[in-house]
Each structure stands twice: as structure tokens, then as C-alpha cells.
Amino acid sequence: MELNSKIPAGPVETKWTKYKSSVKLVNPANKRNLDIIIVGTGLAGASAAASLGELGYKVKAFCFQDSPRRAHSIAAQGGINAAKNYQNDGDSTYRLFYDTIKGGDYRAREANVYRLAEVSSNIIDQCVAQGVPFAREYGGLLSNRSFGGTQVQRTFYAAGQTGQQLLLGAYSALERQVALGNVEMHTRHEMLDVVVIDGKTRGIIARNLITGEIERHAGHAVLLCTGGYGNVFYLSTNAMGSNVTAAWKAHKKGAFFANPCFTQIHPTCIPVSGDHQSKLTLMSESLRNDGRIWVPKKQNDDRKPIDIPEEERDYYLERRYPAFGNLVPRDVASRAAKERCDAGYGVGTSKMAVYLDYAAAIERYGKIEVGKKGLSNISKEEIIALGKDVVKEKYGNLFDMYAKITGENPYETPMRIYPAVHYTMGGLWVDYELKTTVDGLYALGEANFSDHGANRLGASALMQGLADGYFVIPYTIGNYLADEIRTGHISTDHPAFLQAENEVKETLNKFVNCKGNKSVDYFHKALGKIMWNDCGMARNKEGLEKAIKEIKALRTEFWNNVMVPGTVDEFNVELEKAGRVADFIELGELMCKDALDRNESCGGHFREESQTEEGEAERNDEIYSYVAAWKYINAGESELNKEPLIYENIKIAARSYK
Amino acid sequence: MGLTGLFLISFLLVHCGINACIFLNDNGETFNKAAHFMGTNLFIRTAEIGLFLGLLIHIIQGLVLTYENNKKRPIKYAVNAGNQNSKWYSRSMGLLGTLLLIFLIIHMGDFWTHSRVPGLVGGLPEVEYDGVVYHDLYAKMVEEFKEVFVVILYVISMFSLGFHLLHGFSSAFQSLGINHSKYNPMIKSVGFGFSIIIPLLFALMPLSIYFGLIK
Amino acid sequence: MEHTGLNLTLKVWKQKNAATKGAFESYDVKNISTDMSFLEMFDVLNEQLISTGKEPIAFDHDCREGICGMCSMVINGRPHGPWNGTTTCQLHMRAFKNGDTITVEPWRAGSFPVVRDLVVDRSAFDRIIQAGGYVSINTGNPVDANALPIDKKLADKAFAAAACIGCGACVAACKNSSAMLFVSAKVSQLALLPQGQPERSSRVLSMVDQMDKEGFGNCTNTGACEAECPKEISLENIARLNREYMSAALASEE
Predict the structure, then answer these.
(1) Domain spanning A266-421 has what CATH number?
(2) Domain total for chain B?
(3) C100, C143: one domain
(4) Residue A414, C-beta contacts closer than 8 angstroms, at least 6 positions apart
(5) Nearest in space to A169 (alpha carbons), one of C168, C134, C159, C137
(6) Between residues 356 and 395 of chain A, which touch chain C (CB distance below 8 Å)?
(7) Rounded to whole angstroms, how far apart are CA atoms A356 and A349?
(8) C40-83 pLDDT tens trace
(9) What is the C-alpha separation between A306 and A442, in angstroms, rounded?
(10) Helices C152-162 and C180-192 sit at what angle, rounded to 10 degrees?
(11) Do the chains contact at A161 and C67, CB–CB below 8 Å?
């Protein structure tokens, strides 16, 4: 199948403007008769539901949580990028566009990314108008900070809770539409299938998680805003409920899955403390601004960190990347930590951690305070006390969180950190209009693949989710729905609905009737281990081939031996989890296949076969400058389609941080 | 609740001020004169109606509030750890208020009725100062507080009052929307002082009479 | 790092669904690491229950990093357990001692009916937001963000109020099951910011009205909500709500 990305003609700067002014429109009277189903209520889903409701469409929104406000966008800490150039430091739409393409290691689509940079400013205006309390300067204007991979200050933030504040803004806009009757909200509902009739998406099958009832919902278009699939690794910074089910069901109904192997591993997370671990907690990237990362120079050094003298410490990032030091991009920092730990230099009981040390920063800040206050004859202890106060003001909430989780005092002893799965750049393949390969089926936010290439820059996920929901989909969906005005009401009595419902019921019954002797979590953990070992931070042919075999075997065992207590017609958490893990297992296999196919290193995808002599990632643009879009054939069988990536505006270059 | 509470607090101040005249130890002369003024002045008598109205509203509001709020949690917690997030007296305003209501009825039966409806319960003794006849409320007090159980009742009730005020004083400001970092310490300390000093003064009256500290 | 195994007895509320009556059940868990979070201890217990063919305990949770507001357990009489400013998911087992008996109950309030076991229905909060917890502007072309300077102090206060995660611990802690802290946080955020001014009066009136309709109790200023709030939302917001409500009600034309 030829993938048509439908990129408008003309220079990249004018594509979106021209598209908007020539796209088909739906008149208000017709909008009232068009139903749109939105699955997921994170930044992308909530903003889309609110905006489409405002336009007059009849919207039905679904989320599995008890309230749309709890979607995992809420956990984003750092900030949101926008090319406002409020700091007068040379930012522009082009620069944001360029940084994003380069940060993504030249594996993203130019036209989509340019549009993202273009609407980024509108997002900030929109959010401020909603009452989102962004950080401000004393003059009353908005404050910015800098993030990795850029040379300008373009990140807007609300303390360490930017995602929360943006989501609550979108959530309140959504609830306003609920109150006005434009949006019908279905909480504690999980989408379990897409209904496609004659090649067009016509609705979904959802399960009411409280009663277990299977419901049919019809719509003229379906928007999947269901986030990423990092939980395929079991341990990740995602929420416990984050899953791939909606996207995967869509994939099985014909939507191509693009670049599934592109996962982002975040370098600064609190390390695993034992087998009981259920999730990993991120420590904001901002900590790398002041902290120094090191391991002992001696292998298996069991001394306490404060007992290890300066000359016996290896500040490996500063050593390897003198130009960027501790502020190298996420993928580079993560790989370097893994390299040290694998070589036997790791710290902590698990030996799978490195130190993030604030001692130097505390002393430095202390000395600055001494200077500011004009003090003299100050002891070292007093300098350190002053420095601690400064660090507390800047990072206090993060330090508190670390102390709560680990029981250690990060002001006294270095923090232990280790990389963890954080974000998935891959997702459903979409064209310029965010439409998947199935008519009427759209994917927004992290659920699609389009904007971040092989690595996402910090503070860009929030930007993309809101751009898609507030400013892209309201235009592009009209282009499709304009031709749907004659469709009229869609009946859920159509045989396609019945068939989909029966299939869903059959699967659910299979789970509860299996009566095996291993819990769902057992399989999830087993899958996570395979994925992390062979499709994690470093991948190679042998490992991936082994992983594919292991996953196939795990899938068979899962369907024969899973234990799901309870029944299908009640509130049944294990049943929910079983469905999600079943899909993760199939996805995991596809991720390995994709990683196997892409024999190059780019962004978060590191193939050991493709590295320089110094161990740096090596891209292969000759062969792999394409989007890998997989078509589902059968469980364990997929067909690769390629969308070539053409760079007309940016010259492709190697990334170097030396 | 807060508004009527503050109104009643202002009454307490006046009541306590007048009663404190007994500590002048002049055999109740100043006290009796002040009481006479309060009992005969037209303005005060009118205000008294307001006082009863305020008290009534406060009681009704309190009862309704307590009743309504009790219904809001049909299944109670098996384990309560209220002391770790709030003060017991803050959570017990309904109980403290009820105790105070019972006390008020007894207290008014002891004094107020004798002055207002002497026909029903018997009048008060009389005393003459400078040729004018006054009700000798002081003598009545001395008589009442000879009984040890009356003294105990009054002292316990003043504990109830103290704790009721300890929450009520600052709570009234909060209900009226006054919570300001600049003024909070003042409200808090005035409230604390008021909740201790007023009930203490009141409690000292029966105690000093019983133990013969004032004659 | 010390790894001490705790042996604990758990008394947990079990209730099949909203229509049936619930009761406490006792469970023993052994060798619990002090590095575990409270919810991970529940994961271990559930795994143990499933392996012995019993039904696991249903409890709400999602982000497990203290921000989504989904987790909701009353642990030994305290919403979110013994640590201040902490959600259940961030409470760790080092807060407990070997041999402890821990009683775990759902949020208890008439307005939060039990869905199953420790899971409750908090949709009342969504309906309160629907009543006015927003600025009525459509997506489109609002003015440039910096065209509206806002006093940093006000912005910071608005942020502190907006930090509410909507978990409902305030209701669970309040002896009256009052939702005043939740409502006041949203009313405060928008009353403090210039964007919230046009609907300032109507917002507070209709949100309070909806709060009453949902059956939450009245505030008697015990301060339990503030003490148990995992985000430490200040009582100052309730005072502001009272202020906003009084002035709106007095000026109201209805």
C-alpha cells in the first residue's frame, strides 16, 4: 500500500496557512448531526473534545479513569515549549522546528513538525486565557526556562507541575462543554474495539468498568488520544493503567503502526529497589542543570559515596562529552549510565544506579550567597548550610520526593539514579491530517508517531498533545466530515457492531475461563524483562531474534495459563489488566521486529551493530531514512510499509555532543 | 453561625465586665448598681431582645448544622484518628454547645428569672444605697454559690465555654472570610486570650464566693 | 539500604458493589520490604490472593507518583495514611513497624458511594467543576499571553490553589464530609486571576449550589481537610470562598 501523507504543496512556512484556508468546512447545522467519539482525555483528548464540542459537533468522550482529570498527562513535570521569543534570545518558529527535527535525529516528518512549531505560540495564549497559572516574573510577565537540546529559553512552566496545570485547563474546558450538553462524558469506560463498516470507522465497543456491560457507540469519526505504550516494559514512568489497547485494536482493524521501536529512556529516574517495584518515578531533567553524575573508578566499590575521594570518582559524562557535560540529551545520558553499570561500576545494592551529586552545587551556591551577603570568616559548614537553602528553594519538592521514596537524605548523600522508559515516539501512523490508514480514524498526541522522530526533546510532549487537540484536529477533521453530512444517524444494530461486540465478549470470556495458575502481572513482568533486556537501551540482532521467540512462547503460555479471578460482569481489575497485557505481548513482538529491521542507531534506538569506534550512535540515512509503518496481518505477522522521509528545509547532519 | 457567635462573644464581654465588679470587694455595691443599670436602661433592654434572638438563631443554626452534618456520612469509620488532623473541641462544638445550653437554662433559672418574673419564682432580696432601693443580685449570688455542686457545675460549664470559644472565636473570622497572613496571628492570640480570660473570670466568681475570698 | 521484612495484619474493607453491604476482612502479609510503597504492599497481597484462588482487593490508583489523585485509602483512620503532604501511593512501608495491624477503609461520605472494596465514586467533583470551574472561552485566537501581566504574588497564590489533585481526602477527613477545600481551591484560583473576573460571582454561587446538591456537608472550620490534604491546600482558600460567596450572594439579583 502506498502511504499518502497528504502533505500540502508549497513552502513549509505556508503549508498550514494554505491548508486552513482551503480545507473543506462543515456548516453549523450539519455539525449538530455529526457524532465524534474521542477515546482518552489527556491533553490531546480533552483539548480535542472541548474544541470540537465548542464547534458544535456532538462529542462522546471516554476514559478508563474515574475522571477525565486523571489522565497521565497530569504527571508531566518540566514544561511546555513555545516559540514565543519572549526572552529575545533569537527563538523563532524555524528554530523550534529545527531543534525538534534535529533532536528527533532526523526521523520525523518536516511538514508536521513545522506546523507544531507554528501553533506552539497559540497554545500558550490559549492556556493563559483559560487561567492556567504559569510561572511569572516580578514584572507580571511569563517566565521561561531552558531545557535539553536547545540554546534558547522557550520552556513555559508551572513549578514542577506543568502537565497538571495544562491538563486541568483542558479538563475544565471539557467539563464546560459537558455542562453545555455538547460533550457526553463516559468515565470508567475502556474502548475494546473499533467498528469499521465499508472501510470507514463507524464507532467503538466499550466496556463499562463498573458493571462490566459491553456497550456500542456509533460515531462519524473516532479519535484515539490514548497516549503511549511504555508500559510494555512493565516498569516505566507511565501510570499503572497506561496501555496500548485502543491503538492496538485500531492497528488490528487496519491502522498502520509506525516506528514502534522508538522509545525514550529517561536518564534520571529513581532506581528499582526490588522485585516488588510497580513503577518508576522520574526526577525532572532540570536536576541535571546543577547535579554532577559520577560512578566510582573502581569496580564493585562498596564504600559509601561520601567516603570515596574526589580522585577516585569518574564523572563519565564530563569525561566523554566535555562540550555538553551533564547536559547531553536524554538518549546519550541514558546509554552512558548503562555502559558504566554494565561494566561493573554501578552503585547501590542493585549495582544498577549511578550517583547524581549535589555536593559541588551546594558548595558553589553557598559561596555565591557568602559573596552576595558580603560575609567574611565563614566556616565550610556555614557555606554548605547557605548552599543547601538555595538548592532547597530550587529543587526542594524533587528532593522531598526522593527522600520519601528512598528514605535517604539527598542533601547529605548523592542521589542514586538510573534510566527508565518514559515516552514512546512511535505510534499509529497518521497523515498530515492526523488520520490513520483507516478512514475516519484519527490518532492524536503520544498515540501517533508524527512529530518526535527517534527521540523527543524535553517539554515537547505537552506541546504536541495540545497542538493536535486545540489547533490541528478542529480543522483537519472537517475535511473528512464534510463528506459525511449525508451519512445520517449511524445505527449500532449494524452486523459489524454485533460482530465486534461478540468478539470482545468472546475474548473476555476466554480470560476468565482460562483458569490457569499464573497471574496477569506475572506475564506482564516476564514481558517487561524480555523487552528491557533485548529491546531496551541497546539492541542487537541476536537479542532481538531471541526476544521475538521468547515473546511468541510467552503469548502461547499467556493464553493457556493466565488466571483471571472473578467474572466478566462486575468491576474486575484483573480482567482489565489481562486485556491490556494481551495487547502488550503482541505489540512487544512488533517492537522487536521493527528494531530488528532498523539496523542503524538513531535517537532512542541504539543498535550495537551500528556505532562508532568510541561507542557513539551511528545513523544510516542512506538506507533508513524512512518511517516504518507496519500493517497487521495476523498475531505475530506484520507487513512493513515505508514512508520515505524527505528533507527539503533542513540539511541532515550527524549529532555530536563532544 | 460566625456572625451570631461574634455577637454573643460581645455579650460575654459585657456580662463578664459587670460581674467582675464583685471583685471590687465592696459587698456587691458597684455590681448591684451596674446590674440595676443593665436591668432598667431602655436601650439595654431593647438590646436584650436582640441578644435572645441572636442566641436563639445561634442555637437553631447549631442544631440544624450538627444534625445535617451528621447525616453526611452514613457509614462511619471503624478507626478514627481525628486527633491527628484537628482538635477535639473543634470537632465537638455541638456537644460543647449543648452543655452550654443546659448550663444557660440552669443559670437563667438561678438569676435572670428572679429579676424578670419574680411572680413565678420569687423575687430577689433588696438593698438600699444612698436612699435608692436596688435588687440585691449580689446577695443572691452569695446564696447560690454556697452550694458546692452549684459551684462545680459552674466551673465545669466554664471549661465548656472556654473550649467552645477556643474554636469559635477564630472560626467565626474564618467563616466571615477573614483569613489573612498579616492578621491571623492577632486573631489567634486575641481568641486564645479571650477563651481563657473570660471563662476564668466567670469561674473565679463562684469559687471566690464559695471559699470566702470576697465577702 | 536496610531491607527489613515486616509482618503485618491488614484489616481491609471488602464490598462487592454499591448495592451490597460490606465488611472487614483480615489478611496477613509477610516479609514486606520497607522500601515498598503502600500500594506495592497491596500488589503483593493481591498476588498472594490470586495465587490462592481468592478475589483480589479492588483499589483505585494510577500514576503512583502523587499527582493523578486517583488513590484513596483511609489508613488507620487517616486519609492517605500517616505521612503529611503525601498520597497513598507515595506512602512507604517504612512508616510502619513489624507486627502492626493496619486498618484500611474507603473514603467514607454519602456523596462518595463505594463502587467496590476501596474504590469510590467521586463523580460529584466533576459535576461541581461543570457548574462553573472554568473560564468560558472557546479555543481560538485569544490575545497574546503577555498582553495580560499578572502580579507574581497573585499568580503564585493561584498556582498554590490550583495544585489540588481532586483526590477527595478533604471530604474523607472532614467530620462533616464537606467539600469546601476542593471547591474553594478552584474558586480561589479563578478569583485571584484576572481571567476569572467576568464570571467571578456566578461561578462561586453555582459551584457552591452544586456542592450542596451533591450532598456534601457544611464546613465547621475544624481544619482536618488542610491537615490531610496531600497537596497542603490552605484553609485561606475556604475563607476566600466564604468572602466570594457572601459578596456574590449579597449583590445577586435573584
Answers:
(1) 3.90.700.10
(2) 1
(3) no
(4) A294, A305, A355, A356, A357, A358, A359
(5) C134
(6) none
(7) 16
(8) 999 999 999 999 989 999 999 999 999 999 999 999 999 999 99
(9) 53
(10) 150
(11) yes
CA distances from A536 to A48, A261, A522, C34, C115 (A): 33, 9, 19, 29, 38
Choosing from C74, C92, C116, the residue where a domain stops is: C116
CA distance A563 to A16: 51
CATH of domain A503-620: 1.20.58.100
Closest Cα to residue A72, out of A445, A557, A375, A327? A445
Domain ranges across chain A: 266-421, 503-620
Assess whether pLDDT exceeds 70 at residue A357.
yes
- Per-residue HEC secondary structure of A207-261 comes to EECCCCCEEEEECCEEEECCCCCHHHHCCCCCCCCCCCHHHHHHHHCCCCEECCC
Percentage above 70 pLDDT, chain A: 100
Closest C-alpha among A131, A175, A64, A47 to residue C210: A175
Chain B nearest CA to C195, separation (Å)? 22
Q: Residue A330 catalytic?
A: yes
Which of A43, A235, A272, A276 to mutate: most C Cβ within 10 Å? Answer: A276
* Residue (of A479, A431, A428) closest to A4 by Cα position: A431
State the cell numbers at C5. Answer: 521484612
Pair (C133, C241) in one structural domain: yes
**What CATH number does the domain containing C100 carry?**
3.10.20.30
Domain tally for chain C? Answer: 2
For residue A526 the three cell numbers come to: 516476564
Q: Are strands A189-197 and A200-208 parallel, antiparallel or unpaired?
A: antiparallel
Paired residues of A207 in beta bridges: A190, A214
Q: What is the dihedral of CA A593, A594, A599, A602, to 10 degrees?
A: -150
C157 shares its domain with C90: no
Mean pLDDT of all residues belonging to chain A: 95
Show the cell assigned to B60: 437553631
Residues A19-43: tens digit of each pLDDT: 999 999 999 999 999 999 999 999 9
Chains B and C touch (3+ CB pairs under 8 A): yes
Domain range holding C55? 5-116
User: Where are the extended beta strands (E) located within chain C?
Assistant: 5-14, 23-33, 74-75, 78-79, 101-105, 114-116, 119-120
Could you give the CA distance from residue A620 to residue A622 in angstroms, rounded to a whole number? 6
Q: Residue A614 has what pLDDT? A: 86
Q: Do B85 and C223 touch (CB under 8 A)?
A: yes
* Interchain touch A–B (≥3 Cβ pairs closer than 8 Å): no
Residues C143 and C57 in one domain: no
**Residue C175 is part of a domain; what is its CATH number?**
1.10.1060.10
Nearest to A206 by CA among A195, A220, A221: A195
Name every chain A residue with its beta carbon within 8 A of the beta carbon of C17: 570-571
Average pLDDT across chain B, whole number:
94
Torsion of the alpha carbons at C184, C185, C189 and C191, rounded to the nearest 10: 0
Q: Which residues make beta-bridge pairs with A117?
A: none
Best of C38, C48, C63, C91 to mutate (most A CBs within 10 Å, chain A) = C63
pLDDT confidence of C4, banded at 50, 70, 90?
Answer: low
The answer to whether residues B82 and C74 touch, using CB atoms and an 8 Å cutoff, is no
Q: For residue B78, tell me if it sits in a domain.
A: no
Examine the fold and report which residue of C101, C116, C131 is the final residue of a domain before the chain moves on: C116
Task: Return the pLDDT at A325.
Answer: 87
Name the A residues in 504-533 with CB < 8 Å from any C CB: 517, 519, 521
Domain identity same for C246 and C127: yes
Residues β-bridged to residue A37? A60, A222
Mark yes or no for CB contact B82/C240 under 8 Å: no
- C213 with C153, same domain? yes
pLDDT band, very low/low/confident/very high, at A640 (cuts 50, 70, 90): very high
| Same-domain check for residues C34 and C132 | no
C106 with C139, same domain?
Answer: no
